[in-house]
Amino acid sequence: MRATHQVWVDVDFRAYRSAYATAFPEQDLRNLVLDHVMNRRVARLKGFRYIRIVPISRAANSSSGGLSEKWGVAYHSTARMIASNKDAGTFVQYADLADIVKMLNIKTGGSLQDAVNEAQALVEPR
Questions:
Q1: Residue 43 CB burial class (10 angstroms; 0-12, 13-18, ≥19)
Q2: Which of 14, 35, 49, 88 is the most buried (most CB within 10 A)?
Q3: Is the pTM of this model over 0.90?
Q4: Average pLDDT per run of 10 along the chain, which is 126 residues long?
């Protein structure tokens, strides 16, 4: 399903399923989980108030967290990135490449992120 609208919620909001079902009442969510595209802790570190939520399979959701999210939190917790994020003035981020792979409902490959690496090869300059 190609959505013409997106659902963004406050970074502290938790009722993803009801918010998404309100926006897209015709979509069957029974076999899907509602996932925040960006890790909420990273969003807070970047100073973002809103995050996008998307329906994906439980398998894609389980495959895309863990270690890579810990790396993101550690990276954006460094003094350099705290200053950089503050100075950037950015208030929202649509998605990075790993997020896009997850939004396409593809397992990102756990700690090695094989699917993300394959996607990276597709966008590298030739």
A1: buried
A2: 35
A3: no
A4: 82 95 94 91 93 91 74 91 91 82 78 73 81
